[in-house]
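Archive entry. Fields below.
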Amino acid sequence: MASFQEKFIQCFVTEDRYLFFIKGLSNTLIITIMAAIFGILIGFLVAIVKTTHDRTGKLKILNAVCNVYLTVIRGTPTTVQLLIMYYIIMSGSTNKILIAIMTFAINSGAYVAEIVRSGIMSIDNGQFEAGRSLGFNYVQTMWFIIVPQAFKNVLPALVNEFITLLKETSISGYIALNDLTRGGDIVRSITYETFFPLFTVALIYLIIVMVLTHFVGKLERRLRAGDR
Amino acid sequence: MIAKGETLFKINDLKKSFGDVDVLKGISTEIKSGEVLVIIGPSGSGKSTFLRCLNLLEEPTDGEIFFEGNKINDKGCDVNLLRQKMGMVFQQFNLFPHMTVKKNIELAPLKLLKISQDEAEKSAQSLLERVGLPDKATSYPAQLSGGQKQRIAIARSLAMNPDVMLFDEPTSALDPEMVGEVLELMKELARSGMTMVVVTHEMGFAREVATRIAFIDEGRIMVDKPAKEFFENPDNPRLKEFLSKVL
Ligand SMILES: Nc1ncnc2c1ncn2[C@@H]1O[C@H](COP(=O)(O)OP(=O)(O)O)[C@@H](O)[C@H]1O
Ligand SMILES: [Mg+2]
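PREDICTED_STRUCTURE:
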């Protein structure tokens, strides 16, 4: 029976195995951050299309496309979406990081869209009318007046979505992508040691999530103080 | 710009329905440059709808509106350009809460009139002085009282240098002690020659400032008279009833 210390060395020091965790973490962060950026972009576009449609009755076709997108993405498991992206849609590509980013961006975009939509709808219609009556067109009113306020209102919810996204990327191992979770799992399979690799992985996720949660709490308090 | 005394708005048989509710049932009138037209009438009679048709926040169902000689409820009309010439002041102020007072005032001139930041700042500061709030430039709307908010909202509209100002019950959301400061500013505006269309329940203001008063009831202008004659011997029974409630 190897001692605690020997197990530790076996898991992290021997053959520089700590690199599995470092490399895995870096892949996880790259995927999460890039997917979050593109997800927010997609989400805002979809939200704007949908609220524009609701308000003016225009953009019928785009609105229908958005509805299909939201229904499909929210109605199927993310793992299945990842596998379809890898084996079917992007079967010609070997760039797994790119495939993961695309999958998670498209997935997260659907949830961001709902968040942003509720944010836009929570803005008083008087704001919209004030913008229009000054002479701003629809897009300018959205851009200068509505979206900045909506963004501020939904920022905490967006950070929560980021947290969900971070944890969700742990399914990347399904396409043999070496993210943090798979890094730990590889060390487990090499060393036959379960405790250190898996708890290390869990701890790293937990720390990141706790930092972000702390940040959300601060943000919410700040924003509440800002409005009256 | 239309010379004082010339026709600014000409409205022919204006109708507006929401679904199958007929709100405006044929309004015809003229508004001349430099006039202060006060619109009174019971709640739900269509005053706001009429005002909002003037800058096309509501799309008329039927009839014609001419502004500075051009028909505006027409496909070819550039509503955005049109609205730049009409300031609108709302009951609920509708200041942009995410911007400082100064930004609120500067935004439209900067983005729409494409004036320089320098010019915009100068103009904002002089407007703040005009509305009596020179030290509020860096405040946020949430830090202002209701009366101050409405004065800033008026400054924001004035920053576009409009040919007409539309007011929809500008003092109805204010605590009584703040009504005066806003009315005072509106009086000053009227004295400066601004064309104004004002929906209000402030009869004192109407009496003192209006050049003409129109009484709207059930989607029609029932009485439309020069202010001086308006309150003398009202012969319309609905107007009598209305005045007995508000005076
Ligand atoms: N957007 C709308 N949709 C449906 N009905 C409306 C709308 N706006 C106003 N109305 C109706 O039109 C009538 C007149 O409203 P309004 O012009 O606001 O009256 P006032 O300003 O004189 O109180 C009311 O019965 C109101 O319910
Ligand atoms: Mg009204």
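CURATOR_NOTE: The pocket of adenosine-5'-diphosphate (ligand 1) is lined by residues B 18, 21, 23, 41, 43-49 (CB under 6 Å).
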